[in-house]
Amino acid sequence: MVGGSWGRSVIEQCQRMRFAGDIWPIHPTHDTILGLPCYRSVADLPGAPDACFIGVNRNATLAIVEQLSQRGSGGAVCFASGFSEAAKEDDSGTALQQQLLLAAGSMSVIGPNCYGLINYLDGALLWPDQHGGERVSSGIAVITQSSNMAINITMQQRALPVAYVMTAGNQAQTGIADMGIALLQDDRVTALGLHIEGFGDIRGFEQLAACAQRLGKGIVAIKVGRSEKAQSAMVSHTNSLTGTDAASDALLKRLGIARVNSIPVLLEALKALHVFGPMPGNTVASMSCSGGEASLMADSVHQRDLVFPDLSVKQQQGLRDALGPMVALANPLDYHTYIWNDLAKMTATFAAMLQDAADLTFLVIDFPREDRCAYDSWQVAIDALLAARDATGARVALLVTMPENIAEALANKFMQQGLPTFYGIEESLDAMLACVDIGRLANNASTDPVLIQTPRNTPVQLLTETQSKAVLRTAGLTVPASSLAGDTQQAIAAAKEIGYPVVLKVVGVAHKTELNGVYLNLSTEAAVAAAAQQLFSISESVLVEEYIDQQVTELLIGVVRDAANTFMLTLGAGGMLTELMRDTTTLLLPATDQQIESALLQLRSAALLTGYRNRPGADTAAIVQSIQRLCQWVQSNASVIEEIEINPLICLPQRAVVADALIRTRPLP
Predict the structure, then answer these.
(1) Where are the domains of the chain?
(2) Cα–Cα distance, 555 to 658 (Å, whole number)
(3) Taking Cα atoms as reference points, which of 597, 598, 645 lies closest to residue 242?
(4) Phi/psi class of residue 48: alpha, beta or left (left: φ > 0; alpha: ψ in -120 to 50)?
(5) Which CATH number fits domain 481-546: 3.30.565.10, 3.30.1490.20, 1.10.1470.10, 3.40.50.920?
(6) What is the pLDDT of residues 443-495, one digit of tens each?
(7) Which of 260, 322, 494, 542 is deepest in the core (most CB within 10 A)?
(8) Is the pTM above the cut of 0.85?
(9) Angle at CA 437, nearest 5°, toward 432 and 440?
(10) pLDDT in tens, 363-388
(11) pLDDT tens, residue by residue, 64-97
(12) For residues 213 and 256, is the Cβ–Cβ distance under 8 A?
């Protein structure tokens, strides 16, 4: 431990947690700290430390890191700030961080600008502040880029066993993914929670995800912040529809990491993973002695991708025998208070409900205040639930509607019996959904690395619709027959050659509809002439194109390079519905045919693809093939592509046709 008051705090925390190893304080003037003899320098230590907390200023940190590295130390936590995170205010910060890396050499470094780590399994803390945890034999691990969030998480009172808390700081050398892999490989760690401000090393996260899947351990993440758009001059709808956070969402899904939006849900999801692991399905059952709570559960499940299965015949028979004729049998179940405090009846009721059990069954139960009330009869309900669980082997959990309605000691007692207590209806159901997502995503996880390609250093150009379609035709997509016309007579001649009906469009305009720059289904020479005259008033040339009829629906297909030089594939409702419905989903390239088809079917407008109200469906295979050919062409030209938008892709019963397209690219090879 290097440093004054900060080093002293580290020693205090280790002693409080009964750390069994040696602690070697280093201080240039003190002889002892908290009863431990002090060493004047790293050179004076009796050996190479396994790990060191460095609690001095940033300039002194550099020299100490170098000394530790030369002694063969296992690693160091760099507490000091003023490195790359301060680059906007201090020009020297980035240079100092590079010097830190050179000083560390092959020695592992966490930070700088971080609090370090807490190991609650072994009582080993490189941590300079208070914390609220205690020793455990197994538990979840949390890594965060915010030291203050880490402190707050250690203060949780949710009966969640925490094995490790780590802070990442600047990730100058050791990143979140590296930390996560190391923690997951500890057999005592059951699940991993992440707070991510930005993805630095995508390849590292891919390795982390592969490690988690190999070990069967779930990862839940909060991803905050909004990355900048890849280009400020986007001309397509794609970025405005997906939002700048779409790539992060797509990456986490691809990696099999469940994304949540709050710390309470993160902690509740980690609790579920600690006890149950990833959920095999999304069915839920609920039992309570209140119709109000049953209604709240029903409404909350209805708003999520969770299902209350109907009671089976076996369940109904068992419940009727236990509850008698006056209770309405349903899931969620309001078992009333007729059997309250009757261990035999309650056990029979719960066992009946667990006969054909849902993936997770909640007993909704709020406990009275310990300081003013007694809860002996509430314990009867717990004993009955445990007996029913042991008899059936079903997954069961308690759910309190308000966190204050159970004492931490009581929740800890139940957790030791393998019975977790979840806090809040909304948070608990979101936590279960995260565990369901992990199970689903693990089954569909992509083994292909994400496409990452740095662009060439050449100017970006916008291709016209005609040029864009020529490129897509080369890529293997179906494009309508067309011809450019420079005057009205050429437009009439082109229409005759293509065959009526035709479409006339202005050329060189990104959003034609807003300028009345498109005329559809023109069936006569007079109609073509009239439309051409209008269009030539706003464009020097006009595109005459085959009219595609018998369409089932229209799709938007977009590919955009994002700020991390990955490629987002956006699929959504197209044509006039694009901005009206804002119905999109996003994948990262490369994507498999199965992933593309699954994404299409997740759209709210998917019913139009499959055939809505006895209307014919679209040729899904042709749509997927068109999208895949576009993706493969992007992969082959990734160094020059900035964005592509096909809007719409007209979907027909037998084919899919590119009706309009824009491409922003550097010069093609």
Answers:
(1) 5-227, 278-439, 481-546, 553-665
(2) 10
(3) 645
(4) beta
(5) 3.30.1490.20
(6) 766 678 999 999 999 999 999 889 999 999 999 999 999 999 999 999 999 99
(7) 542
(8) yes
(9) 130
(10) 999 999 988 998 888 999 999 999 99
(11) 999 999 999 999 999 999 998 877 787 888 999 9
(12) yes
Q: Are 521 and 474 in contact (CB under 8 A)?
A: no
Best CA proximity match to 641, nearest among 565, 557, 556? 565
> Do 278-439 and 553-665 show the same overall fold?
no
The tokens describing 258, both together, are: 């469940």
The one-letter code for the residue type at 162 is V
Per-residue pLDDT tens over the stretch 223-252: 986 444 433 434 455 544 444 578 889 999
Maximum alpha-carbon separation in the chain: 101
**Tokens coding 303:** 């708003």
For residue 140, list its beta bridge partners: 162
Q: How far apart are CA 499 and CA 593, in angstroms?
A: 35
577, 583 in Cβ contact below 8 A?
A: yes
Classified by CATH at the fold level, domain 553-665 comes out as D-amino Acid Aminotransferase; Chain A, domain 1 (3.30.470)
Of the candidates 248, 180, 189, 186, the one whose C-alpha atom is nearest the C-alpha of residue 210 is 180
**Total Cβ atoms within 10 A of residue 137:** 9
Structure tokens, 632: 């493969």
Return the CATH architecture of domain 5-227.
Answer: 3-Layer(aba) Sandwich (3.40)
58: which residues sit within 8 A by CB, 6+ positions away?
Answer: 80, 81, 82, 83, 96, 112
